[in-house]
């Protein structure tokens, strides 16, 4: 469903991704792991079209999306919850969802309801301003907002980053539930090996802008994998 073929991505003169390739199968959950600064966020931004690729190709659901605008990729079924959750802090939870409902052709009142079914804790907070929510609640809102567009594939950038341990489990359960119940494919950037071990069907490990290891969940137990993730 998603094929990234040998992409190079740079910030000005600083190249960050070097001929990176990966595939994500329909309905699967693939975890992208690797030390800080290896290019995980850059990869997601390139897939979403937030950053241009210098060379290589990105294909989604049979479409060559390499040069498409971000909104066109969203229309094709890609959803993106960026690092640091990125909600509108002055708007209420309901208004945050409504923005997407108004802006996305595929969004309907039912898709808002379905998103809230995945994150039921948000139902009691609909009138609260997003800026006053806890980090964990904002993260849930960010993921719910993305679900409103009815994606067939969701890119999640470190949803557990900076979240207190008691809430991490809640977020993990929500990702598991949304993956299982909606069948959406997930490309998840995640630092916690334990969480990846519980959630991932497949994984890739990046180092210095390249994929250096990939495999199925069972391969994550391998000591050489742990070594690639240790600072
Ligand atoms: N806007 C930018 N301009 C220049 N360099 C950048 C920019 N954003 C990121 N970089 C650099 O690109 C490299 C990869 O960054 P990226 O955020 O993709 O890594 P990451 O693996 O997601 O790291 P982390 O786990 O810390 O989020 C880093 O060396 C970073 O300093």
TrEMBL record:
Domain of life: Bacteria
Presence of keyword Transport: yes
Boundaries of every ABC transporter domain copy: 2-231
Keywords, ordered alphabetically: Amino-acid transport, ATP-binding, Nucleotide-binding, Transport
InterPro entries: AAA+_ATPase (IPR003593), ABC_transporter-like_ATP-bd (IPR003439), ABC_transptr_urea_ATP-bd_UrtE (IPR017780), BCAA_Transport_ATP-bd_LivF (IPR052156), P-loop_NTPase (IPR027417)
Keyword Transport part of the UniProt annotation: yes
SUPFAM superfamilies, A to Z: P-loop containing nucleoside triphosphate hydrolases
Gene Ontology MF terms: ATP binding
Family (UniProt): Belongs to the ABC transporter superfamily.
Stated name of the protein: Urea ABC transporter ATP-binding subunit UrtE
UniProt source species: Dactylosporangium fulvum
Gene: urtE
